[in-house]
Amino acid sequence: MTRQYNSIAGGEVEPFLGDVATETNTNDCNMGRRDSVSSHIERMRSNSIKSIRSTIEIVREHVDKKKFALLIFSSFLLYIGFICVFAPRTSLARDLRRIHSSHLTESEIFRIYLNELADKNLAGQHVRNYTSHPHEIGDKETLEYTVSQLRSMGFEPKLEKYYPWVNKYGNTEVHLFNESDIIFSATMLEDCLREDPTTCRKDNARGYHGYSANGTVEAQYIFGNYGTLEDYKRLLDNEIDIEGKIHIIRYGEMCPGLKVKNAELYGASGVIMYSDSYEDGYITQANGFEAYPKGPARHQSSIERASVGFFSDFLGDPTTPNYASKYPYTERLSPSGRLPSIPSVPLSAKEVAPLLSKLNGRGVNMLPGGNIEGFNYFSGPSSEDIKAKIVNDQKYKIVEMTNVVVDIPGIFSEYDVIIGNSRDSWTSGGAGSPNSGSSILLEIARGMKSLLRQGWKPLRPIKLISWDGGAHGNLGSTEYVEDHSQLLKRNALAYLNLESAITGSEFNSQANPLLHEVIRRAAKATQYKGEDNWTLFDEWDKSSGSRIDPIDGISDCSSFQFNMGIPSAQFQFRNNGKTDAVHQLHSSFDSYTWMETFVDKNYQMHNTLAVLVGMTSLMLSEKEPTVFTMGPYFEGILENYNQLHESLLQAFPKDKEVHNLAEKVSKVLSYLRSVSSSFDTEVLALSQLCTQDFPAWQIYKKFKIYIKLTRINRKLKQIDQFFLTQKGLNGRRSMRHSIFAPNKWRGDKVDVLPGLHEAICERDRPSLLLWLKTLQTQCGNLESLLQ
């Protein structure tokens, strides 16, 4: 029907009344039909309900209630039996993941992670961004870049702030005087190289030391070689006058802080530290190689900035030892005894040469010599009319630093796997140390995010942390550990570190022996620089027999391993000592230009390490029993103990009490070594049980496996923590581990059984007995744990 409209004011139209009436009648008819259908349905529903009620009444009248209940129960059992017989067979491993809606298998997890990093490599972009400007402790630009990159991946990073007391650059000077005339003044800067834009920035900091004492010193000077105790003994044995002099010391053999500590102990008024290319091995100008940027050798103007705190004795902020500097107003202690009291500054080989050449023919010759042009490596002292002047004016203050933390929750709420790296640097450089590790950390995060997008939930939690304050003394990692010590003690499983990740071509791993096997397995699953038929393990085995070294003495691992007993590992491509370009640590020449020209042009080694560390963390996270192997752990302890046992017998040849106690410790360590192999076999068998499929009616077996799994994992996590002591090493309270600690006299290398070693070297019988009894007790407790 065509509808007609009447015109009304405003141009609107309305239907004729006849049309309205027609529509109303039509609606009434429709409503009538609907009412008829509704009433019919209602009658049917009423009849059905009456029928059901009638049936129930009949059942009640003719069937006994107990029999009826038994019938229902029997039907339920029949249903359960049907499910048990015909339900698919599953393993405990699959059940744990299905309960938490994580359906990816282990092989799928590895494949997705590997494919994500194989398809794209953003490491070069990250390195260039991190090294685009000076980024000391507390730098906002690198913080914002790290956070923005993580947020762009879909993470919600947590920012944790701390407030350490540190020095920022103020002013440093070195002058050479002939009587009252200045005959040389150091620039305290690297040369500007046209080929490397980083070296020509106007905001590059001059050479200075972190935590160096302020002061101005003018005095005669000596050459103290490496500044070791043996060097000072040689000087004193040859009656060299070193008291009150400025001591010129070269880097190498020990950490910088202990060099200044020794110099202070032997009466130095100040210290000048320099880099001698002799320490670079074969790749030197003396051997015919051109210097950077034309060649791989060290540039003579390279300055190694460093921190000179006594970090082999304590960890973190020197004004808040063993507790976190969580607020600007945190109560602080005097740093006396933890920092030098004499000024120190770094110099380049180029600018130290005029000073050292004045020592030729004076004093005693110091071996092994070196490569400083015009210097014959005599000790001095300088003549009375030749003096050096040091000016060190640093700005000490409380600064805000920020750790960036990404949490990936796991199915288990404990056993965290932590991956970390510091992002701050002394200069605009830092491409090798620390920002190769910073870029790899972001690449690992990208790989993890690809898994999360596929519905993955790790079995164990994973944390990715970008530390601040690493250059001054691993402040970010230490403050974090001090702040979260109780949580870490309960939950942390392992710490993986990326410090100085790419500085050469030779792969090296340093790790707690509990982690040796999982690292090698991860290396076998990692392609070397993307090559199809050559794994990282193949390359590693070829270059060093897949050797794993002890952890460095001072790094971001220190607080985790030496203070908390959390098994730690570090991964690097380092200088091979044969053909690789020299890494000019903490100088302006550690730039992306150097990285792309001489080390990792296409950032393939960055990608390789991102795969390796990611795979190591996934293997630690995804395996039901913790993948620690105890065999290498106790094998290494026993091997080192046997060496110390020989030294002990020589140091205390007629002391029966010492001999008897040492023999008891030897026996219990031998027993633990034998038991550890059996325990590793038991863990392997449990791992196979966790992946074995069982029919549903054998669910009780899964409960048994789960109970055993919980017990085994708890034991494995406690192993390293059983060697913690309450008071720490003598005079080094932060170093609480009986098995691993920085070497007391070198700092940069780890010492195995440090308390025992120190007591033997110092002929300290009470300390020796104390550490033997401590080891006996700790090993006895472990023996009980493993039974």
Automatic annotation (TrEMBL):
Keywords: Membrane, Transmembrane, Transmembrane helix. The chain crosses the membrane at residues 68-88. One of its GO terms (molecular function) is carboxypeptidase activity. It comes from the Eukaryota. Pfam families: PA, Peptidase_M28, TFR_dimer. Residues 232-292 form the PA domain. Residues 664-775 form the Transferrin receptor-like dimerisation domain. CDD domains: M28_PMSA_TfR_like, PA_GCPII_like. Residues 403-592 form the Peptidase M28 domain. Belongs to the peptidase M28 family. M28B subfamily. This is Transferrin receptor-like dimerisation domain-containing protein.
